[in-house]
Design brief:
It is built from 3 helices and 3 strands. It has helices at about 35-45, 50-55, 70-80; strands spanning about 1-5, 10-20, 25-30. The chain is globular, with a radius of gyration of 11 Å. Helix 2 runs antiparallel to helix 3. It is α+β, with helices and mostly antiparallel strands. Strand 1 and strand 2 (about 10-20) form a beta hairpin. About 40% of the residues lie in helices and about 25% in strands. The model has no long low-confidence stretch (mean pLDDT about 95).
Length: about 80
């Protein structure tokens, strides 16, 4: 399980498990909008990590230049390279 500390968002910690085929096995996120982030985690489960990164990268939250989904894309990217 890879741990990532997001920046500029309400969530405090993201934990990601990716299998040897770059499929997302599990995502756990502390803080932020629980319902939305739980839904994102469920939707990402079993998906190809690279595709999820492409879909989430660049999403903004209000006036912020980032968002929890955007930060999750960075977390997934780092988790892939730390396997």
């Amino acid at each position: 399980m890879f741990t990532y500390i997001p920046h500029g968002v309400c969530s405090r910690e993201m934990r990601i498990s990716i299998d040897d085929e770059n499929r997302i096995h599990e995502i756990q996120i502390d803080g932020g909008c629980a319902g939305n982030l739980n839904a994102i985690a469920v939707l990402c489960k079993g998906q190809d990590a690279q595709i999820v990164i492409q879909k989430l990268r660049g999403i903004q939250c209000g006036m912020r230049v980032t968002s929890c989904p955007d930060q999750l894309s960075y977390a997934i990217e780092k988790a892939i390279f730390n396997q």
